[in-house]
Amino acid sequence: MSSSNETPSHSNSLSSHKKFYDFRVEDWYSCCYSTTDKSAEPLTFTTDFLPLTIEQANAIIHLYELFHKYPRQLLPGDVGLKLPEQEESLQQYIKQAKMNAMKRFSSLTSVHAIVSDFYDWEPNTFNNNTNNNITDSTGNNRRDYSNWDPILKNQKIFTRHDASLIQQLGISLQQKFDELAKVSPYPRMDGFFVRASTRSPKDGCLRHRQAFMEQLKLELEKNARESGRDIKYNEPLTVVRAFNAKLCIQNAMQALDLLVNSERIYADLFRALLFIDEQLKKEPQKELPEQRLVVRLFKKMSRPEYEFRVFVKYIEILKQHQVVGITQYFKTCYLEDLNHHDGSLREQIQKGIQSLAQEVSTRLQTTENFVLDVSVEYEHVLSEDGKSSQFKVTKIWMIEINSFSKQASPCLFDWDEEETIKVLNGELPMQFRILTKPLTLKEGRRELAKDVSEMLEIINGKPPAEEEDHDDGDHPSKKNCLVQ
């Protein structure tokens, strides 16, 4: 790994392809188990990697485009002629055809059936209905496409060869899952997690809207029972926990369903393909440079919202890395225990993170700056007399490593804030940023993805009208942020 001491500034763009892929996935593995001492405690979850060929990456892109960019190709060629001035109806039919195709893919129980039961599958009748004609407002008969089950061979984006490539990728993924399960160090197998070298497919969870909404309802009910707290505490926490639950997959078919429905994965693979040289483009069976699938054992955390982003800078004068900034990762979540009056949990987390960062630095053997995402496990421990309790951090897990650049979300820091720049440049003392009070319902939902906000409104209704609107240009999380 090359040495780089770039620091964030207003002037440098930090957006080149090379910077985007600064940290190779191999570096993650060197942090998982000590390269010199195999008995050393792992810093992260059991991890392995699966290469992607150029043509496999293209196949994922093609299926994403069919589902989400050009779904009109799912309809028969004559549908436009049948509906010359009924654009609204046509869009409804396209939407339904897309949903039918997505459901057919996600309902597959085996990766071995992707070609036969997804691509080659044809309905027994035109639309599973004996009456395929309806009468429109002018009295003319026309075909009813509202329940159209797409015949994939009729479109030209996603080919049968693409389907066979995704099927083979699924078979390889399942083999990796089986191998990891055999060496699992955990007493209970929770499942698996898959991502690309650059990002996770977490946005793919939202493509199956009804399933995600049901998960949100479950998490809201569970959190309300366990905490007895007002709903404004519950919404941000349950969103994090719902995503966490959906990203825990049990088999390769579920993994593929996330990957082919993720705009994040689509964008990153598309970007990677743009940068391969012309000679490599002529050999699509070759591995795609800079991108692999990262396959990991999934360990369910009791408090997945206790995730932190850690900025680690190499201080040249000291010849060592130092933590220059820590922030809670989920900026809408009020972490109640972290705000406990004695500050003991925050102090333990800070010391543990600093120790972990030094160990990662030692194992990476680099002078580059980097960003760590970590997850904290802790428990309440009763005092000897049983009259009081205290917090005890039991484990800090490394989730991933990212480049120290503007492409890493600053969370409660702000790349456009002068103080952030000075702190993360090491010119000001280290800061630990957390929320000091819950956001209002309106503030919290404004920070969430539009789809998630809409789901919460369906489940819990609109925010109370009497809530004060603090939309004055600053993020509410910034105003409620404690700087230590």
Explained architecture:
By secondary structure, this protein is of the alpha+beta class. It has two domains: 46-120 and 157-298 and 449-463, no CATH class; 307-429, no CATH class. The protein has 17 helices and eleven strands. The strands form three sheets. Strands 9-8-6-7-10-11 form a six-stranded mixed β-sheet. The protein is globular, with a radius of gyration of 25 Å. 36% of the residues are buried. The model is unreliable at 1-21 and 126-131 (pLDDT under 50).
Q: What's this model, at a glance?
A:
With 484 residues, the protein is an alpha+beta fold. It has two domains: 46-120 and 157-298 and 449-463, no CATH class; 307-429, no CATH class.
